[in-house]
């Protein structure tokens, strides 16, 4: 149990670092109202977690990369706060676009990752 916690923690440390660096870089490139940084990170995370799932990586790597890294790289809480802010600012077009496109592309990215992972392991 303790080793599993350390494994997840190690992955999470790298995941949050990757998220901060990615967010800062994306925000320096994208200055529009749409919260593109969180959107891009969550879609990429969905693809990568799907890939790990499709590859059927072992339990230790799954804890490290899946639970730890991807769990701290992607961010459901920021996604929700950004949506509340869009609603409070009455930016309904952005709100509905963000929610709809995030879920649709997130599911498609996860599916694509699983398919690619299955293809790569054979």
From TrEMBL:
Na(+) is not transported, but it plays an essential structural role and its presence is essential for fluoride channel function. It is found in: Cell membrane. Its main location: membrane. Fluoride-specific ion channel. Important for reducing fluoride concentration in the cell, thus reducing its toxicity. It comes from the Bacteria. Na(+) binds at residues 71, 74. It catalyses: fluoride(in) = fluoride(out). The keyword Coiled coil does not apply. The lineage of its organism: Bacteria, Bacillati, Bacillota, Bacilli, Lactobacillales. It comes from Tetragenococcus solitarius. This is Fluoride-specific ion channel FluC. Pfam families: CRCB. The gene is crcB_1. It is a multi-pass membrane protein. Belongs to the fluoride channel Fluc/FEX (TC 1.A.43) family. Keywords: Cell membrane, Ion channel, Ion transport, Membrane, Metal-binding, Sodium, Transmembrane, Transmembrane helix, Transport. The chain crosses the membrane at residues 32-53, 60-81, 101-120.
């Amino acid at each position: 149990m303790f080793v599993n916690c350390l494994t997840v923690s190690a992955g999470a440390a790298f995941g949050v670092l990757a998220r901060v660096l990615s967010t800062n870089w994306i925000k320096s490139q994208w200055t529009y109202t749409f919260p593109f940084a969180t959107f891009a990170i969550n879609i990429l995370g969905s693809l990568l977690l799907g890939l790990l799932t499709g590859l059927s990586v072992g339990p230790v790597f799954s804890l490290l990369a899946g639970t730890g890294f991807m769990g701290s790289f992607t961010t459901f809480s920021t996604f929700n706060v950004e949506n509340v802010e869009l609603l409070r600012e009455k930016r309904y077009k952005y709100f509905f676009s963000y929610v709809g496109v995030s879920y649709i592309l997130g599911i498609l990215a996860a599916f694509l990752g699983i398919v690619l992972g299955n293809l790569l392991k054979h």
